[in-house]
């Protein structure tokens, strides 16, 4: 087992550190920078069929569901195609209305999650094609995906808490958004080139985020006794806040809530006091100023702010109790980079609390029964 961990203490830690490579592998052979084109080899739908898609339904469970939420921003921004996101367990029982020219997108690492498989079966029954964004090869989901499969190629993920698969799903989701935009003629080859260039720069930026992780040990030293935490983000980073909170509760057993920051005033603000660390995702994007005022509101109530910012930031740097620097990228792709510090923080907290990082209590890697 310790050999399988390749010198790392836990599989989760190993899988976090594999991300520069796994995100590269998701892109491999699919990106043609020179011509500004994307080719997802596993699609069973032609460019003409892709061009006709009017609605996407994205379904998944757990961390993969958060990936669906991010993918909605990617596809709606880049390919101007509406995306509805459902928990697979809700979708299957709500008699979903699936119009012609829609597509079901199923995100699942294992390809064996029972609710996600049932959602795929529902789409098939209604005559709607299903496309899978999958990791494990040869799963049940791969057989049900009549619209094709995009493998993320992250390799086996052993830790129960998903890390490298989440970022892999986002990379694949971005490629899919570009592929649909290309099919619909929404982006010119030159615009595609710009997007692809930003995408291929991500693995190197992930490496930078993994260089020195001592900050997370310091944060864990200071905060490991807390009972509650709040994670806030807006726009494409709102789902990243949800994922940060999920990771924290899964492995450290600290009660953590993720919220779109704009909703803070409609509830969570009542909980904020000096015992409540608030992780704020505040890298540069169109809603930066809004995040800034959310941070001021947290501070005014005594909350401790741990902020994710870009290196060139000056405004939030002064206001936060702690800052985590994240390399700059495009606003949409910031979601992928911002994920990494939140993984490292939850890992450090779990470690400091002596929790069983790879096998958290009551959780399973894949939920194959209802
Ligand atoms: C379980 C795992 C999660 C995972 C979810 C969906 O809850 O603990 O890490 O995100 O299942 O799994 P899937 O294999 O469908 O991606």
From TrEMBL:
It catalyses: D-fructose 6-phosphate + L-glutamine = D-glucosamine 6-phosphate + L-glutamate. Signal peptide: none annotated. Keywords: Aminotransferase, Cytoplasm, Glutamine amidotransferase, Repeat, Transferase. Its main location: cytoplasm. Residues 46-186, 219-360 form the SIS domain. It is found in: Cytoplasm. The keyword ATP-binding does not apply. GO terms for molecular function: glutamine-fructose-6-phosphate transaminase (isomerizing) activity. The active site is at residue 365. Its EC number is 2.6.1.16. Catalyzes the first step in hexosamine metabolism, converting fructose-6P into glucosamine-6P using glutamine as a nitrogen source. Homodimer. This is Glutamine--fructose-6-phosphate aminotransferase [isomerizing]. It comes from Thermostichus vulcanus str. 'Rupite'. The chain holds residues 246 to 615 of 615 of the full protein.
């Amino acid at each position: 087992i310790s050999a399988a961990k390749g010198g790392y203490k836990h599989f989760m830690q190993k899988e976090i550190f594999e991300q520069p490579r796994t995100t590269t592998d998701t892109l491999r052979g699919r990106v043609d920078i020179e011509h500004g084109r994307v080719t997802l080899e596993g699609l069973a739908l032609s460019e003409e069929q892709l061009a006709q898609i009017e609605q996407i339904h994205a379904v998944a469970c757990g961390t993969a569901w958060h990936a669906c939420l991010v993918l909605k921003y990617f596809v709606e921004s880049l390919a101007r195609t509406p995306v509805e996101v459902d928990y697979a367990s809700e979708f299957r029982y709500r008699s979903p209305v699936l119009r012609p020219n829609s597509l079901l997108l199923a995100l699942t690492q294992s390809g064996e999650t029972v609710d996600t498989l049932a959602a795929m079966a529902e789409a098939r029954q209604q005559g709607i094609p299903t496309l899978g964004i999958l990791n494990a090869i040869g799963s049940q989901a791969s057989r049900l995906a009549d619209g094709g499969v995009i493998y993320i190629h992250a390799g086996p993920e052993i830790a129960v808490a998903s890390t490298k698969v989440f970022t892999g799903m986002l990379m694949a989701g971005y490629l899919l958004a570009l592929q649909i935009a290309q099919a619909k003629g929404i982006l010119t080859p030159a615009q595609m080139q710009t997007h692809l260039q930003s995408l291929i720069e991500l693995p190197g930026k992930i490496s930078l985020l993994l260089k020195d992780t001592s900050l997370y040990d310091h944060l864990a030293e200071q905060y490991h006794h807390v009972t509650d935490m709040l994670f806030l983000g807006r726009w494409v980073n709102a789902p990243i806040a949800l994922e940060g909170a999920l990771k924290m509760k899964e492995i450290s057993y600290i009660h953590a809530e993720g919220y779109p920051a704009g909703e803070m005033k409609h509830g969570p603000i009542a909980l904020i006091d000096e015992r409540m660390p608030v992780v704020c995702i505040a890298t540069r994007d169109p809603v930066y100023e809004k995040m800034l005022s959310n941070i001021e509101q947290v501070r005014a109530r005594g909350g401790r702010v741990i902020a994710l910012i870009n290196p060139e930031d000056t405004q939030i740097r002064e206001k936060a109790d702690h800052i985590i620097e994240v390399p700059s990228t495009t606003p949409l792709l910031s979601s992928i980079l911002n994920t990494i510090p939140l993984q490292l923080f939850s890992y450090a907290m779990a470690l400091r609390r002596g929790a069983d990082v790879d096998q958290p209590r009551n959780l399973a890697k894949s939920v194959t029964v209802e």
